[in-house]
């Protein structure tokens, strides 16, 4: 969950920067407890849960980590596989049995699944959307990642993180702060520096670059075969696509090409033409361009460096007379031509 707007600066320290309340936390658990940590499995949540499990080692009878949905992102699947993460999919009532429940990187009000538990502890960095009444809570909305908070708990407990825990926490911090380009505190950087020497950087690198499935490669092939270069813009139309994610992957990849400052990758999905635009963000406004080009036809918008439009093929039919592949391709290229004046 990312409720943060991008900011391009590192704040010195947050109002909620304070030492972790370790003894208070420990006093909520006894050695007979079986504990279930529930998470929505994104990297920050996974890292935080592993750290919490480490914190409770030898303090309780058992700790398991339950995920409320299957992991689908390929980077996260790669991490789960390479680090052999002990994640249980919470489905049957059987998997939900425990004496105490913990929530990290989320709040009970964030989804219905979480709201069914009586949590003993909640640690999170999202703004408190509804008052959280649990025995132990540590909410620090100014932190870039919950993983940074959890790294502080590990340090306070004198619990050296294993390679697995450190790698997952590091990836959590890198993902949620988008490598410190988004909301970041000095505390996040501090946690990063602390974890760095414990992590497996080969695994981390493989996890970070594992964006593609083998099936995706045919869209790259198509993009390179059908690409049109107009000045510093590259256009590629991929026809029917399984999801718009592949447009993002191709558009971001093609931005690596020297002298290309804009990439425009389009395709059709569920009766819509989807156009994905990327640039380097330097004195450019992709959102504005896309709104001007397509705003009257469907939904269109974005930021300086990234934008997207979705236009129902039905309404396009009226403008271009058909929805043939070549017609759609030409339509996008004309509307986003660097020579077009708006
Ligand atoms: Mn997070």
Description:
The chain has 342 residues and is of the alpha/beta class. It has two domains: 10-209, inorganic pyrophosphatase (n-terminal core), CATH 3.90.1640.10; 217-335, Diaminopimelate Epimerase, Chain A, domain 1. Helices cover 37% and strands 21% of the residues. It has 13 helices and 14 strands. It has helices at 22-26, 43-55, 74-82, 112-115, 146-157, 163-176, 186-196, 201-209, 217-226, 245-254, 286-294, 313-320, 325-335; strands at residues 10-11, 34-39, 62-67, 87-89, 100-104, 119-124, 136-139, 184-185, 228-230, 233-240, 262-269, 272-279, 299-302, 306-312. The strands form three sheets. It has a six-stranded parallel beta sheet. The longest helix has 14 residues, at 163-176. The chain starts with 9 loop residues before the first strand and ends in a 7-residue tail after the last helix. The relative contact order is 0.11. Residues 1-8 have low confidence and may be disordered. Bound molecules: manganese (II) ion. Residues 44, 105, 125, 145-146, 176 line the site of manganese (II) ion.
């Amino acid at each position: 969950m990312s409720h943060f707007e991008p900011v391009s600066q590192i704040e010195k320290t947050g109002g909620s920067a304070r030492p972790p309340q370790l003894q208070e936390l420990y006093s909520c658990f006894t050695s007979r407890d079986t504990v279930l940590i529930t998470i929505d499995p994104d990297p920050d949540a996974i890292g935080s849960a592993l750290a919490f499990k480490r914190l409770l080692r030898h303090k309780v009878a058992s700790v398991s980590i339950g995920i409320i949905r299957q992991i689908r992102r390929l980077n996260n699947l790669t991490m789960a596989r390479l680090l052999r993460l002990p994640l249980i999919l919470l489905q049957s009532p059987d998997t939900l049995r425990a004496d105490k429940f913990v929530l990290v990187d989320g709040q009970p009000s964030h989804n219905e699944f979480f709201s069914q538990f009586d949590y003993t502890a909640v640690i999170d960095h999202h703004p408190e959307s509804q008052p959280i009444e649990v025995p132990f809570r540590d909410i620090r909305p100014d932190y870039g990642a919950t993983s940074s908070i959890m790294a502080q708990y590990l340090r306070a407990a004198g619990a050296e993180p294993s390679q697995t825990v450190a790698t997952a926490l590091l990836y959590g911090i890198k993902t949620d702060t988008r490598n410190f380009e988004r909301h970041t505190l000095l505390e996040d950087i501090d946690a990063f520096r602390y974890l760095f020497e414990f992590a497996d950087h080969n695994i981390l690198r493989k996890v970070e670059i594992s964006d593609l499935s083998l099936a995706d490669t045919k869209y790259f092939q198509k993009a390179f075969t059908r690409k049109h270069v107009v000045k510093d813009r590259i256009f590629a139309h991929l026809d029917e696509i399984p999801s718009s994610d592949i447009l993002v992957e191709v558009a971001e990849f093609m931005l690596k090409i020297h002298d290309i400052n804009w990439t425009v990758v389009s395709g059709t999905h569920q009766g819509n033409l989807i156009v994905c635009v990327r640039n380097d963000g330097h004195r450019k406004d992709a959102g504005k361009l896309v709104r001007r080009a397509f705003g009257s036809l469907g939904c269109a918008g974005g930021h300086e460096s990234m934008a997207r439009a979705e236009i129902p093929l039905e309404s396009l039919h009226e403008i271009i007379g058909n929805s043939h592949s070549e017609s759609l391709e030409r339509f996008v290229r004309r509307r986003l031509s660097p020579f077009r004046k708006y």
